[in-house]
Amino acid sequence: MTQTAVKVRGLAKRYGEVRAVDGIDLEIGTGEVFAILGPNGAGKSTTVEILEGYRQRDAGEVSVLGTDPGHPTRLWRSRVGIVLQTANDTAELTVRETIRHFAGYYPQARDPDALIEKVGLTDKADKRIRQLSGGQRRRVDVALGVVGNPEVLFLDEPTTGFDPEARRRFWVLIQDLAQEGTTIVLTTHYLDEAEALADRVAVITKGRVVAEGPPATLGGRAVAKAQVSWLEEGERKQLQTGTPTRTVVELTRRFDGEVPELTVTRPSLEDIYLDLIGSSSTEPDDHSPAASRSRDPR
Ligand SMILES: Nc1ncnc2c1ncn2[C@@H]1O[C@H](COP(=O)(O)OP(=O)(O)OP(=O)(O)O)[C@@H](O)[C@H]1O
Fold it and tell me: Which residue in 86, 149, 241, 252 has its CB near the most CB atoms, within 10 A?
């Protein structure tokens, strides 16, 4: 890791009796894409909202770009990008008007039309926000999160409601931003998204980090046993093995060539994730604190 963009030590936050965040440590390097995974109610949004400066913590140390988000300055805010839940305060403005309007708040804003193109809304640029579909509005939200050219970008479930093509387009946008050196912190329930985008992931359950690492090696994934499966005398056979190549060689000899319906698989990120969270998922309350946040970036 080069420089540290986000540092969290012993972070804690309670809501009454609920320990939403219960001693989280994180360190995210400049330019890293970091995904926070976890079941509903695990404490992801609370953590991200504290990092964004939208929620006060009870305990712990937090630094984002060297500043405590509990005491944000105006300059710090202009260096941090946040994708808020869809708000309706610009519903009567067009996509272009909205993005131009918010670009005006930032010293080093992106070119609004280039950004509209990047999020795939060029043909909707002159439509009013209220005329857009849910997924299209979400793309406007993402555009507003990056319009200020932030050094750190926080994305809380950014692609919920996107169609598959919009998700892929969003991934390309995130990869572009990462290439430009933007540090990106995202929460997601899509494990393929974490796998495609993240350099490292942290899995949170009940307000604690239970595993952390690159998606390819998380929770011992890289050294987990492979499953070899084939068809023999009309029956599906399966074998868990740490040496799948040797097994395949033996099978090839035995069958004297092609092994019927041979597959070799290793645990997916989803398998590992489900193992990690076990039965510890907590039920969500049906409130959405983020929905009431203001979009004004000042
Ligand atoms: N404003 C609040 N008041 C009271 N309890 C809250 C509040 N916000 C969150 N909680 C509780 O804190 C816990 C963590 O919630 P949080 O929204 O951080 O989880 P999450 O991991 O983001 O969940 P999800 O995946 O469902 O968005 C949950 O038990 C939730 O019910």
Answer: 149
How far is ligand 1, taken at its centre, from the CA of residue 20, in Å?
6
Question: Tokens in use for 152?
Answer: 């750190």
Q: Please tell me the distance from the alpha carbon of residue 193 to that of residue 167, in angstroms, as a whole number.
A: 9
> What CATH class does 4-218+275-286 carry?
alpha beta
Nearest to 263 by CA among 233, 235, 237, 243: 237
Ligand 1 pocket, mutate which of 36, 40, 52 (most atoms under 8 A from CB):
40
Q: Give residue 88's pLDDT.
A: 58
Q: Please report the pLDDT score of residue 118 as a whole number.
A: 87
Q: What is the pLDDT of residue 63?
A: 97
CA torsion through residues 27, 30, 34, 36, sign: positive
Pick the residue whose CA is nearest to atom 26 on ligand 1.
40
Ligand 1: lining residues by beta carbon, under 6 Å: 15, 18, 20, 38, 40-46, 282, 284-285, 289
| 241 CA from centroid of ligand 1 (Å) | 40
What Rg do the C-alpha atoms of the chain give, in angstroms?
A: 22
Q: How far is the CA of 274 from the centre of ligand 1 (A)?
A: 20
- The DSSP secondary-structure symbol of 233 reads T
Q: Is the Cβ–Cβ distance between 35 and 187 less than 8 Å?
A: yes
Residue 276 has pLDDT above 50, yes or no: yes
Binned at pLDDT 50, 70 and 90, residue 285 comes out as: very low
Which token pair is 84? 């808020």
Say which residue the tokens 């305990």 belong to. Answer: 59
Q: How far apart are CA 152 and CA 139, in angstroms?
A: 18
| Domain map (residue ranges) of the chain | 4-218+275-286, 225-265
- Centroid of ligand 1 to alpha carbon of 286 (angstroms): 9
